[in-house]
Amino acid sequence: GKAISSLRKLGYDVKVGELSALDNEIDLLIIASPVEPFKKEELDKIKDYLNRGGKVLLFLDLPEKVKELQGLFSITLGDYLIHDPHHDPSLGPTAPFLDDYMNERVFKGRVYRVMMPTVREIRFLHDAEFKYESIARVSSDSWKDVNGNHKLDKEDETTGLEDVTSLIEQKEGLMKAVVLSDGDFASNAYIDLYENNAFFTGLVNWLTGEGTLVDIPPPEPVFVPMYVTPEQLRLVRLIGPVGLPALFVLSGLLVFLWRRRL
Questions:
Q1: Which of 17, 88, 138, 154 has the most Cβ atoms closer than 10 angstroms to its Cβ?
Q2: pTM, rounded to two decimals
Q3: Are 88 and 97 in contact (CB under 8 A)?
């Protein structure tokens, strides 16, 4: 996929395979959107890798399928999709922008225009073994769609900041894991939109830098398509045959009246 190609362009040796590869020395384990629960022996291999100071980039979007995996990192995903008025206009309020509330330690003041097509809140279970830090949040106007009607119901739903990308570290070890509550933003369909690719590769750089502050390079100029909603498209179609002729008539009338006043 495009994400793998981006990493290889940066010089990473990327291997796609089974968890048996964890028997070898690897710098980073990426687990992308598991759709089936892990077997006990697979979870044991991941836990052993973490205890050896492993680094993990974890994409999760099906909480009911990865409960045991979440437990390894002392986190849980929310039951409801987050909606945000600051979203991609073509995808709707379930595709928020993460262009604020980014972690200074990781991004050093750099703010990325990132869009995630579906996100849930990440909750930390306050395990004594780990420490937790937010990396990126949705806006303070966001809400969890408890009622499932895609509208804010102030009686049952409240707005507020929600963590959707988080950092979990061992207090007494070298393990680091970045968890994202969306599995699609780095997929082929979305990684070239906005600054998703730069955000993804930046997280990989930071994790593989053994915890040091690795500079995240500015994104290369890329073509970002403009999405138009059906309402906007109808307005554009109306402006052509109706709006422009009306504008010419109005300007001509103003010139005529101005000349008469002279």
A1: 138
A2: 0.78
A3: yes
- In DSSP terms, 159 is beta-bridged to 143
Q: Please name the fold of domain 2-208.
A: Rossmann fold (3.40.50)
Q: In the numeric block, which tokens belong to residue 18? A: 């089974």
Question: Does residue 202 sit in helix, strand or coil?
Answer: helix
Structure tokens given for 32? 């992308």
User: Of 176, 151, 180, nearest to 163 (Cα)?
Assistant: 180
Which residue's entry shows tokens 């395990």? 127
pLDDT digits (tens, 9 = 90+) for 121-161: 999 998 888 999 999 999 999 999 998 888 898 888 889 99
Exposure string over 6-45, b if 16+ CB within 10 A, otherwise e: bbeeeebeeeeeebeebeeeeebbbbbbbeeebeeebbeb
* Separation CA 23–CA 46 (nearest Å): 10
Position 220, amino acid:
E
